[in-house]
Design a protein that fits this description.
236 residues, 3-stranded antiparallel beta sheet, alpha+beta
């Protein structure tokens, strides 16, 4: 039986859709991912606060190494990918246990793998973009859908977009690049939005991206179909 559940561990707040039998695996994975991150920050507090790319060090856990690599690709700090890292780690562990349909949302960043069509709400907080959703076809492995906003949510953004969303099979990279894209949208002009989206699509590993600002939308690369579909804000 597929269930939707929400739980919080420290600063991690997850909404999970998966088979009920995988919930223990999901929770164990979240605790393990947090242990890896907390150990790294205790060893080097700078890792947890820098807004600049951070090179991996010898002996770092593979999860930390991937965060560092994504930060270098996107030009942001490694913690820009922390939500995506926890979400992807969690989905990977569930897949290892045989799960075939799982969606993990962590602070607006989604890692998912599914054998069926899924609809993901796109909450831009702007007039004209209400009740818009992404139609995600069955995936071949893990899919990352990560978002940043200059207007919504607690995450740091130096831009002013309603939402910037990046798509990649590398969820950590998608998370870091969503932050980078959001940071670049300052004025929200068509030229700025187009140039910013194109620059993010040039990052190796990024499939596509979109950004919404001031009633405009810019799309670059391969992006899921946008459809009309009502969704409950409380489920985001």
């Amino acid at each position: 039986m597929t269930v939707r559940t929400h739980f919080e561990v420290g600063q991690t707040a997850l909404t999970v859709v998966c088979g009920k039998e995988y919930l223990d695996t999901v929770k164990d994975a979240v605790f393990r991912a947090r242990e890896i991150l907390e150990s790294k920050i205790a060893e080097d507090p700078f890792f947890g606060i820098t807004y600049d790319p951070y090179p991996p060090k010898e002996g770092d856990d593979p999860l930390i190494i991937r965060m560092c690599q994504a930060s270098e690709s996107a030009g942001v700090g490694p913690m820009a990918g922390v939500a995506g890292a926890v979400a992807e780690f969690t989905v990977s562990e569930a897949l290892r246990k045989g799960c075939r349909h799982i969606i993990v949302e962590n602070g607006g960043d989604i890692a998912m793998s599914s054998d069926r069509i899924s609809h993901i709400g796109l909450f831009a907080g702007e007039k004209g973009f209400e009740d818009v959703a992404l139609e995600i076809p069955p995936t071949n492995g893990i899919c990352g859908i990560c978002s940043s906003s200059g207007k919504i949510g607690p995450s740091v953004s130096f831009g002013s977009s309603g939402i910037c969303t990046v798509f990649s099979e590398n969820v950590i990279l998608a998370d870091c690049c969503a932050t980078a894209l959001g940071n670049r949208i300052r004025e929200g002009t068509p030229e700025e939005m187009s140039a910013s989206a194109e620059s993010i699509c040039d990052v190796e590993g990024v499939d596509g991206c979109l950004c919404v600002c001031g009633g405009r939308i810019a799309i670059c690369g391969t992006v899921p179909e946008l459809v009309r579909g009502s969704f409950d804000d409380a489920l985001l």
